[in-house]
Amino acid sequence: MTPITRTPVGGRPDALRQAQGPEGAQGPEGAQGPDGVEGREAGQPVPEPVEGQDSAGTLRQAQGPKGAQRLNGEPGPGPAAPPKRAARIAAAVSIALVGVYVAGTLVIVSPTTPVRGAVVAAAGPYFTQKWNVFAPSIMKTNITFSVQAQWRDADGMLVKSDWVNVTKLEQQAVPGHAEPSRIQKSSWNAMLAYNARYLALDAQQREIVRDTFIQRADGGGYRAQSAESLIADLDAVSTTPGSGQGDIVRFLRYDYMLKEYATAFSTAYFDQDVERVRWRIDRTRPNDFENRFSEEQQFDDTAVTFGWRHVDDVIDPETLAVYRDVITRYGGAR
Fold first, then answer.
1. Engineering a disulfide at 36: which of 3, 111, 149, 243 sits with its beta carbon 3.0 to 4.6 angstroms away?
2. Residues 259-281 pLDDT 10s
3. Strand ranges, E, within the chain
């Protein structure tokens, strides 16, 4: 069968042939197949373009209604779907929240009014920033740990040393170091833990532990008071005898540890065979921020001194060498 061809009318471009594509592969409404066979009955003429219809109109007619068919016969994009109800609700809620936040911010930075006070009180727990955001445990008091020791001279007489501020000595090595070693604050950490256990005791128990833990030995001389007798004495003055022994035992364990620490430090610092040690917790509080420029001290210094503890152990030479090296490096050598 001879394929049907069409001559352009009046010099008009054959837009219909352009819509059909090459080789007459597709006509209007898919009238012609790849071999030139019409989709309609054989020999049925294909209608000529309507007179006065431009190329664009012919092209639209070939494409179908509302551009539903592309030039290659594939379906075109349909009309845009309206936004879903959930999306509209989410957008409205977001806009409302932003509006409330902006309005609240403007009220907070405005001059003092009853409305501002109510808004600040409501928003404070969620948006107010304080210094404890960056340092939750701000210390307003400077606490230091000092030790004192006794030893025998050549005549057998007790010699009492001066007080040595161990915390101050350790802190001399801290300036200039972005990340100082933990050993440079060992006395400070130990003193804080010891003080917390001390404060857990009753008032009368605190008075007893501030006394000396030394008693006379049967064969002469002195010895350390036994842990059993200390527990009995402290429990006897407790407001709830028997139930508070946990706090007593925790304190005495740390008291023994602190005695060991003070003994090793004093032996290395004074280079003597130390027989007794005791310690003191000093507190100094600087003026408040409002009075920072005042020369008058706003708060009094306080000190809690604990009694003598008898040294009844032998210090390991390697441990003593470590303490001597630390004291030398910290600039505390005598």
1. 3
2. 999 999 999 999 999 999 999 99
3. 142-152, 158-160, 164-165, 214-216, 222-224, 274-284, 302-305, 309-310
